[in-house]
TrEMBL record:
Source superkingdom: Bacteria
InterPro entries: BetaGal_jelly_roll_dom, Galactose-bd-like_sf, GH2_Domain-Containing
Protein name: Sialate O-acetylesterase
Residue stretches making up the Beta-galactosidase jelly roll domain: 49-162
UniProt entry keywords in alphabetical sequence: Glycosidase, Hydrolase
GO MF, any single term: hydrolase activity, hydrolyzing O-glycosyl compounds
Length: 342
């Protein structure tokens, strides 16, 4: 992502800084994705739209075969616009490490959502009646390690509004982020989301908020061209072993600035939470968020709540990339020492 509307803003992004604010360590680096499984082959395919097709137990033996990637118009479905589904399976036995895995699906025209073993792990664009295309977005989705089984079913629901449709092109496969943070608790996946400037006290009705996949730009998930304030929220349970440890909350990269609350306590922010900070800390969108949590803040007996307030100045916005979850302080220090030695 490059910001071009403000020259000084662009130039300042070339200066990488390390800053510590309220226990937040932010360091800039890019994902290093290595392909560990090729999924460019023939998938099962059917036009139409039934939610049961996401179920791994569904019998798709009478479906057509289609090459992935390719436009379905070039594979016998010329002129078809509307809904269609793709399905395939893969074995986890071929994967030596189930952590830091991503399902890379390239470019899909126009809108899609992705299920693994019946659980939605990603979406781009918006389906009708609030249609918003995401045909030009390269898609890669985090594979939660707890979701993987010996045999895994991928189901991709696609809507095409016109022209070419389907999983069009790209390097399709399972990728591993070589430099990912080795989380103790993975919190990626479906979060609650609402646009607007919401304080952490204002989440009593968060069950009525929209669902959004974290990590992932909000523009790619139906909030096209939205700049400004938004709020993410997640409730989760935690095992006793992690309550006793001093933990770090890792939130990947956030565009542009953020303010984070855990169980109602402010645990960190990437500078003062106001629009002017976007220019003062203009490279914050490139930096990994790691917030050190106070002892006795997390609970094993009750649900824990994370609230992330975000302000985006322009272009891509939100919790858009990287590892999302909890890691013990000892493991976090070892991770960074290993990176520095590299």
């Amino acid at each position: 992502m490059i910001h071009t509307s403000n020259i000084s803003y662009l130039l300042s992004k070339l200066s990488l800084i390390l800053f510590l604010i309220m226990g937040c360590a932010s360091i800039s680096f890019a994902q290093d994705l290595k392909k560990v499984m090729d999924l460019s082959h023939r998938w099962k395919f059917s036009i139409g739209d039934k939610q049961e097709w996401a179920n791994p137990e569904f019998n798709d033996s009478d479906w057509e075969w289609i090459d992935v990637p390719s436009a379905w118009e070039n594979k016998g479905f010329h002129g078809y616009d509307g809904f269609a589904w793709y399905r395939t399976t893969f074995s986890a036995r071929q994967l030596h490490d189930k952590h830091a895995l991503y399902l890379q699906l390239g470019y899909i025209d126009d809108v899609h959502e992705v299920f693994v073993n019946g659980v939605r792990i990603g979406l781009s664009g918006k389906f009708p009646p609030r249609f918003s295309t995401a045909y030009n977005v390269f898609r890669s989705y985090k594979l939660p390690p707890d979701l993987l089984q010996e045999t895994n079913t991928i189901a991709v629901r696609v809507y095409d509004d016109g022209g070419e449709g389907g999983i069009i092109h790209g390097n399709i496969g399972v990728m591993m982020d070589v430099d990912a943070v080795p989380l103790d608790v993975d919190l990626s996946g479906s979060w609650k989301f609402k646009t607007g400037q919401y304080a952490h006290e204002s989440i009593d009705q968060m069950e009525s908020w929209d669902d959004i996949i974290v990590p992932g730009n909000w523009e790619d998930q139906g909030y096209k061209n939205y700049d400004g304030y938004a709020c993410y929220a997640l409730e989760f349970k935690l095992k006793e072993e992690f309550v006793k440890d001093r933990m770090v909350l890792v939130l990947g990269k956030i565009d542009d600035i953020d303010q984070v609350f855990v169980n109602g306590v402010l645990v960190g922010q990437s500078g003062e939470f106001k629009p002017q900070t976007v220019h003062e800390r203009s490279n914050s969108w490139q930096q990994l968020r790691g917030y050190y949590l106070p002892t006795n803040l997390l609970s094993a007996s009750e649900k824990n709540t994370i609230v992330v307030r975000v302000y985006d100045g322009m272009h891509g916005g939100g919790i858009y990339s990287g590892s999302i979850g909890l890691i013990s302080q000892d493991h976090y220090i070892k991770y960074w020492n290993k990176r520095r030695n590299k």
